[in-house]
# Entry
Amino acid sequence: MKRHGLALLVHPYKNVLLPRDRLREVLDRFARKLVGLLAGHQNLRLGLVLPAYMLQLIDPLLLAQLRDISKRGDLEWLLPGYTEPFVSFSPQWLTAANVRAGMELFDELAGVRPDGFVPAFSNWEPSCVDIMAECGLQYAVLSQVLFPRSHRDCCGYWVTECGGTSTVVLAAHVMHHFTAPPNLAEWLTSVVERDAAGCSASLVVIDYLVPLVENEEHNPFSWLDRVALGIETILLKFQLALLNEVPASSPPAGLQYIPPSLAFKREENEPVPGFQNFLHTFDQVGIMQRKMTALAWQVAEGGAGKKTESLKRELFFIQDINRYLPHAVGGFPDIRDRLWTYGRMIALEARLAKREHLKGGQIRIADFLRNGTKCIVLSNSALKAYIDHKNGGQVFELDFRAAHANVFAAYNPKQHEPPRILVPGKSRLSFVDHFLAHEGEVVGLLTGEGDERGDFVRGPYDYKLKKSPDSVKAVLRRQGALLIEEKQYPLVVEKAFGLRESVPEFSFAYQLLNQSLAGYSFVFAVEFTFALPGVPGDRAHLKCGRTKHRHLRHNRVLLEGVTEWSLHDMVLGVAISFVTQKPVGVWCVEAGDPSGKKAGNYMGTTLVVYSPVSLGENAAWSLVGKLEMKKLRVSREIIDAI
# Structure
């Protein structure tokens, strides 16, 4: 009787950012164990799934040993790409370039071009069929949970099509050491018996995940060791196969359409329907994706050449899927991952900006968020600010180019329903304008209990743009109303944002106009939320005069009657100084949920600048200030990771 086939893939992964030296260390440890496993068991044949950039980091002697094992037919190489691209979030040309670069690097370092495509988290789009055809890939391996329930137990392979192009796709059982069956032979028998087709010769594919950063209590190689020791028992019924041998040895089970899919965990679990909608219910991930896409098209417009190829390599890391998914130890909810991604994008943007030769600054009106409404983008060689004039005239991104930092990259875990990139009142934004009845309500504002008296947080602002030889300015205006003591009073809010040539200062000016014949009083408060990675480790402080306020994660700080103060973050390597022309009050607290409870992950630090205001009939009140950015001379810990 013909034996069934078993294809065992070993799939090392890392969900976390690691310094390059640390990554070399864990990759060498993994490669050493894999070489020892294959050298010690002659009947063992494996597939190895690896992003191509990791090949460059493996010790050349260990890589040479893996090449020799591959030449004798006991090891097959498979790849997700040069990195692990987020197929669904990336332009198709960029993913194709990523995979093609991975193939070329495998050819150079491993001496072979892989036949198999294994997208990270089984992130599949029908367009992958075209990408595979373009890159010369013969088959894809996806988690079986992407297939219809009625076909998941089919032990074989399928053909999938898109636009007249087809490719082979194999369904794999994805498992970790803690989900892998203790008795593989019994488990394999049960899998084959569940196959409704009842084929006399079947194929079972296992995608075994090995974390590069291991838990000290568990050795993920221990399961592979047990499999290798019991290989003789398995070989009685199952023949170890390499996947590149499968299509030639048996026909496919049939045709299978696979819709856009993603499994949010690497191990086997149900895919999330409409996963892109789900992701866009969270802060930041949508902005990151929009920024990455905009950069990709800028790079594409640069044409061919060595400089363009270098920019593409940088984009390959920026499009890595691990930064755009929520993980227990990383992903976009984690401040280090967010700032790392923004940092790489801002650095790449700075390289592209050199082509533009900005003088005096630049103003762009663009549908950056791709939601049908345009944003205002002010930039000079030092700063870049993104303003959403349709939703409260708020600033959702402020890039300090010298430090490769988006200082407004704060996060709120509260989801947006329906899915939207930004939602005023939920998203962590800056220059959010509040109008309160008295100073006591400022504290309530910090915990989500403030009684908003105006309609300026969510309302649209009209705008005018001004450009001079040495500066750029956006002037926003809204005719709104305040509700004070059960009466409505008209109020006009004008706020202007400006940049001067090459100066890392973001200026702002508020003017509040009472156009009625009645006077009234209120408290005006402006909310800012900063992403300060030094706060959790007490490596950030608020400075006012000679006083440094530390422990910002646990303490609320109140400054009264001040005109100058600053935030210093030793991890980010940035100092942010505030200067106002008149004394104001300042609250500084950790951004938390409305209950005031601290979440597990640090999300941001909120500053509320406030002042009491009394407006007589046809009177005006103004507040002028600026944010000054300075790069600190510290050893930064975010950008030097991979």
